[in-house]
TrEMBL record:
Segments crossing the lipid bilayer: 481-506
Keyword hit for Transmembrane: yes
Domain Glyoxal oxidase N-terminal: 52-434
Domain of life the protein comes from: Eukaryota
Alphabetized Pfam families for the sequence: Glyoxal_oxid_N
Keyword list, A-Z: Membrane, Signal, Transmembrane, Transmembrane helix
Protein name: Glyoxal oxidase N-terminal domain-containing protein
Length: 523
């Protein structure tokens, strides 16, 4: 059957996305899918680099980024291209790549050139689709780098700007803002926030970062979410605040989450659950899962059991507090992904220890699916596991076709291919349970602009139940945290039976249309 849709793109947080519809693909969701627990595929046997950071561009390809001061990688730069950096502590003249572009359609890898050290850096796309990447270590600690995405056959590459950060930032977090800038929060021994571009603004002290700076610095890579009221939810260690970024003051403080430290190096993760049309895009909840036992990083030989809890809170509630839930498996270094259906997949990590070189054991090989709308006690489903450990310095990103790209894992200071957890250069794709079947047809004529009405036609040889029109961000993923991850469930159109998922890519966001939720979930 065919279905025509018309919609105006002008909702709440959409103000931060750019104008053009640039890329799309369609994925069918059937009841139960091909495998009720999902399936794995190794899509690249040797990427040449281990992925510490990753981001999906509006062309659907994926920027992979490691650190530069690690010595030679296994991915050569083009002939005649070498990095001459006398400040590099491992290799001052290096003809190998430490960043790459992965193309999901062909599974090909193209080396990218990055000059200064990006170790444990941060980043995010701006409204034009440009990837803005900040900080790192050593000579890269104050650098601002940019990457203008291009198609698979393009030659785009990293560029370093002539403007630096106001202070060195290592293990900081970035959040895109509606005014077109990014706020950069924290970093090791950096208890401030700043803006990129600064536009005349200086640094602003953030007391939360000072208050949560324990003996092992459990306030790094703070979780930052832009809420519907245009304030920021900022979480560090176990504490959190509501922050007015326009006037730089704390609006309110929230109760301490029970349990273990949740940020680097204890490595929990966090998402803001999808905003929905039924809630007027104003109601929201924060979900924080996993972490490490107190002191695990300071005493790595102990290999203490990781956290097995998640905390969930409505930041707008008058008496806001954390509601705790127990995961099926303990997990530190888990990545949290918002799925096309508005659920959460927790993937990667370990069940003992913390982040750090050799500081963890007992890899968490099985992903977990979390259903936010299910009854308490019925929200978790264990999915099919992999046989490749993805521990320290791993990534997980949602692809336009609905798969989750999983890369990286290097628990060593340098590339090490021997021992219990060798440096991992393979890339996998995990197909969650919602994937399977034959792809439907999709036609969206012309381009899509902010605030403009658009129409699209869906054709599928079967009956449809409903259409959900949704949008999800394309985050910058590193160290178990997806920076600027959120989703909007925009509309609901009732049709008839079967179903599908349709993805549209904006420059910095993914616009997704969904038709069918799995029958086992009560549709």
């Amino acid at each position: 059957m065919g279905l025509e849709m018309r919609k105006t793109c002008s909702i709440g947080l959409c103000q931060v996305l750019a104008a053009l519809l640039l890329w799309w693909s369609a994925v069918l969701i059937l009841c139960g899918g091909v495998n009720g627990q999902g399936s794995w595929e190794t899509v690249v046997k040797n990427a040449g680099i281990s992925t510490m950071h990753a981001a999906v561009t509006h062309f659907g390809n994926v920027v992979l980024l490691d650190r530069t001061n690690i010595g030679d990688s296994q991915l050569p730069l083009p002939p005649g291209v070498c990095r001459n950096n006398q400040q590099d502590r491992a290799n001052k003249y290096d003809c190998t790549a430490h960043s790459a572009l992965y193309s999901p359609g062909s599974n090909k890898i193209r080396p990218l050139f990055v000059q200064t050290d990006t170790w444990c850096s941060s980043g995010q796309f701006d409204g034009s689709g440009k990837l803005v990447q900040t900080g790192g270590d050593a000579e890269g600690v104050r650098k601002i780098r940019t990457y203008w995405p291009c198609a698979d056959d393009g030659d785009c590459n990293w560029e370093e700007t002539t403007t630096n950060l106001q202070v060195g930032r290592w293990y900081a977090s970035n959040q895109q803002l509606p005014d077109g800038t990014q706020i950069v929060v924290g970093g090791r021994n950096a208890f401030t926030v700043e803006y990129v571009p600064a536009n005349g603004r200086g640094q602003f002290d953030l007391q939360l970062l000072k208050d949560t700076n324990d003996a092992q610095n459990d306030n790094l890579y703070p979780f930052v979410h832009l809420l519907p009221d245009n304030n920021l939810f900022i979480f560090a260690n176990r504490d959190s605040i509501l922050y007015n970024w326009q006037d730089n003051y704390v609006v309110r403080k929230y109760p301490t989450i029970p349990g273990e430290p949740r940020n680097y190096p204890s490595a929990g993760s966090s998402v803001m659950l999808p905003l929905t049309a039924t809630g007027g895009f104003k109601a929201c909840e924060i979900l924080v899962c996993g972490g490490a036992a107190p002191g695990s990083f300071s005493n790595p030989g102990r290999l203490a059991p990781a956290s097995d809890t998640c905390g969930r809170m409505d930041p707008f509630a008058k008496d806001a507090n954390w509601t705790m839930e127990t995961m099926p498996q303990r997990r530190t270094m888990g990545d949290m992904i918002l799925t096309p259906l508005g659920d959460v997949i927790i993937i990667n990590g370990a069940t003992k220890g913390s982040q750090g070189w050799g500081y963890a054991s007992d890899p968490a090989l099985t992903p977990v699916l979390y259903y936010p709308g299910a009854k308490s006690g019925e929200r978790f489903q264990t999915l099919t596991g992999t046989d490749i450990p993805r521990m320290y310095h791993s990534t997980a990103n949602l692809l336009p076709d609905g798969r989750i790209l999983v890369a990286g894992s290097n628990t060593h200071q340098f590339y090490t291919f021997t021992g219990q957890f060798p440096t991992e250069l393979r890339i996998e794709a995990f197909s969650p349970p919602y994937l399977g079947g034959t792809r439907p047809g999709l036609v969206v004529p012309g381009e899509m602009g902010y605030g403009e009405e658009f129409s699209g036609s869906v054709n599928y040889n079967g009956n449809l139940v409903w259409v959900d029109l949704s949008m999800a961000s394309a985050p910058f993923v590193t160290h178990s945290y997806a920076m600027v991850i959120f989703a909007l469930i925009v509309s609901y159109i009732s049709v008839s039976w079967f179903g599908l998922v349709l993805f549209f890519f904006f420059r910095s966001f993914v616009l997704m249309v969904f038709v069918f939720r799995c029958r086992v979930r009560g549709c």
